[in-house]
Amino acid sequence: MKKICIRPSIPSLSTDLYIGEDLLTSEQLLRFFNQCKGKKVIVADCAIKNLYAMKLSQQICAELITIQSGEHVKTQKTVEHLMDALFQMGAGKDTTLIALGGGVTTDLVGFVASIYMRGISLVLVPTTLIGLVDAAIGGKTAVNTPFGKNLIGTIYPPKAIWADLNILQTLPEKEQLNGLAEILKIGLIYDSSIWELAKHNGHMHTLILKAIQGKIAIIEQDPMEQALRRILNFGHTMGHALETVAHYEMPHGEAVALGCLVEGYLSMRLGYLSEKNFEKIQAIYHRFPLQLPKAYTRTKLLEAMAHDKKRAFGEIRFVLIDEIGHALPFEGAYCRAVIPHELESTLNWMENR
Amino acid sequence: MKKICIRPSIPSLSTDLYIGEDLLTSEQLLRFFNQCKGKKVIVADCAIKNLYAMKLSQQICAELITIQSGEHVKTQKTVEHLMDALFQMGAGKDTTLIALGGGVTTDLVGFVASIYMRGISLVLVPTTLIGLVDAAIGGKTAVNTPFGKNLIGTIYPPKAIWADLNILQTLPEKEQLNGLAEILKIGLIYDSSIWELAKHNGHMHTLILKAIQGKIAIIEQDPMEQALRRILNFGHTMGHALETVAHYEMPHGEAVALGCLVEGYLSMRLGYLSEKNFEKIQAIYHRFPLQLPKAYTRTKLLEAMAHDKKRAFGEIRFVLIDEIGHALPFEGAYCRAVIPHELESTLNWMENR
After folding, report:
1. What is the ipTM of this complex?
2. Is B312's CB within 8 Å of A92's CB?
3. pTM for the full model?
């Protein structure tokens, strides 16, 4: 087992990340939870209930709440339902809330932990690769709204994350690809060695660790996303808008993969990225089933983008790259406004791929 | 005008408090809001719409949303209604949200600002004395639930607070008393000079400033309420439970006044506070119309207390005092468990007053 301490510039936002094999059945995990005072409540995605949730809840003497799986449960309504359940079981401010599941579950449960009694202790046990790399690390919590994805939320890092590599490695191929999409994104914006490794089908463990370390380096410098951390949104301006158009029936990883490819193209069209580098990028994304959502129209996409959180002074802003492994700083804003006219050729290209 | 900088140990929780006469029509205020980039949105309690909200919104070019007044609007439903309004007017992450009203409005709007797009800029303009002393300073935001008061919320200090003493001084007598209840509480737990001044009907300005300075000294040491800040809950374990029993139809100030008196009595019964000091406390509270809510029963009160946020390991905990001006530290917990049996004589006394 490896323990990675995430220590941002704001000390109260610290997290301990435990990563290794067979962690969920380890002595260390039991010892960790036995040290938590007060009530323990696991919220688990029902898709994994039989596999791990029942066993874990018995081992650590925790109450168990199950929720449906899928992006459509990531709403204010589920948040209220969960909080009512916590009130009804008499959960106080000394409760530890444990999220067991994918990114939807950890985002949702993290949000509940951040507002229940003005914040209770939170531990994440991600069970998908994208849930570990994307959602669990960095403390962002969120729910979706009809206006767009992740538009309500907080920055509330968990006390600890337990990442069991066995669970992550028994994921179906499709789930592995979803995780790879976020790993590749970190490669594109921050660490070209990730990209090299992925290109040569390097070992998945190494890829995961490199991606995690890259992400931690970014969020430690800017935990509240006031500048540098924005680069983690590469591929997400387009990706989130596509998910909104698809009514969240498109997996986040697929949306991010398509988003990265399209925002890579945009980086080239705007003259920042060489054609040669864009071709390298394009070559890797052949692994992904990149389809526009059935409900796609350009009007709907632009409407969804209008609610992007990076928007400022009425303009849509994109993170852009000039090399594989380097996002442009734009004088500390780490994103730049792209006017509709500049976007047109990129949208044409995306629609006709 | 006086500018008081609130600088807790966590720098990102800083607030600038501007306090003085005629601030709402001052050049300084206009200059301050002209420096805010992005959209400005005022959320005002409809009770004060005609007085200040329209004028302010025109002066600083802000959009205006009005909400009903009263504790019953401080719910998740109003939060969703406000967020929908913000999405519909295209408010982005660069929006400044301005709360104009009493404590209900600032708590509610503060909560919205803390979760809308994971946090947008917040400015408070309290229009009641209790709203200034109690709700505006310290960054607590909240909504009520059927299970109890302020059970959902965040700690999210505003960027700035503008406190216009003219508005605060034209409040009706009843509103002044509500504010006085919180001022006296700070006197009881932290600063006996407040108490001396109040006893001799000292100048209201001086009382307000002393209470503000006392509160700031406490929250600067412990912004996240992990220890010392708990003393600000004196009178509130009982007070909040009374409000819950009254279905929030009891003014917060009245509930806190009665709560402080009763928790003072409890401090005496448990042997911490002398009878002589308790009599002094009792003498001042004759100014307040201290009535139990019509719906009061002991069972309902105990049920409401069971959801108190200070509760730990299944026990109800109270902040207690041993002197006028000093709360007991209890080895850094700043509150102690009181078992039902110990509470009984205090409840008997309260019911038979």
Report:
1. 0.93
2. yes
3. 0.93
